[in-house]
């Protein structure tokens, strides 16, 4: 019985640790991931990061993090064609 209690406590504490690791230390909210579609109005002042597109020949999810002209950081998820298609 004690072993089950210890196992449960370890499991719960690992979830709490994982949540704390994903929350910024400054107390600021992490940017909400926005889904791109053709009607999305983009206000991009500076691109902070782009995800790596895999070397496959299919549509894959991609992510861009950018700063708008008001200084807010956005994370945008979109679909992109993989880099593995040949031009034969």
Provide a descriptive summary of the structure in words:
There is one protein chain. With 88 residues, this protein is of the alpha+beta class. It has a single domain (2-81), classed as Roll (Spermidine Synthase, Chain: A, domain 2). It has one helix at residues 2-22; strands at residues 33-35, 46-50, 59-67, 73-81. The chain has a 4-stranded mixed β-sheet with strand order 1-4-3-2, with no helix packed on it. The protein is elongated and about 45 Å long.
Short description:
By secondary structure, this protein is an alpha+beta fold.
Instruction: Kindly name the structural category.
Output: alpha+beta
What quaternary form is this? single chain
Sheet with the most strands, sense and barrel status = 4 strands, mixed
Helix content: 10-25%
User: What's the SSE pattern?
Assistant: HEEEE
CATH class descriptor name? Mainly Beta
Shape by Cα distribution: elongated
- Beta-strand segment tally: 4
Determine the N-to-C terminus distance.
64 Å
Could you outline the blueprint of secondary structure elements for this entry?
Blueprint: H1 2-22, E1 33-35, E2 46-50, E3 59-67, E4 73-81
Parallel strand pairs: 1-4
Antiparallel strand pairs: 2-3, 3-4
């Amino acid at each position: 019985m004690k072993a089950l209690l210890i196992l449960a406590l370890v499991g719960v504490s690992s979830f709490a640790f994982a949540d704390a690791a994903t929350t910024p230390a400054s107390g600021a909210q992490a940017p909400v991931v926005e889904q791109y579609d053709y009607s999305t109005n983009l206000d991009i002042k500076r691109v902070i990061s782009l995800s790596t597109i895999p070397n496959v020949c299919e549509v894959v999810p991609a992510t861009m993090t950018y700063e708008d002209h008001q200084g807010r950081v956005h994370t945008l998820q979109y679909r992109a064609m993989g880099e593995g298609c040949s031009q034969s």
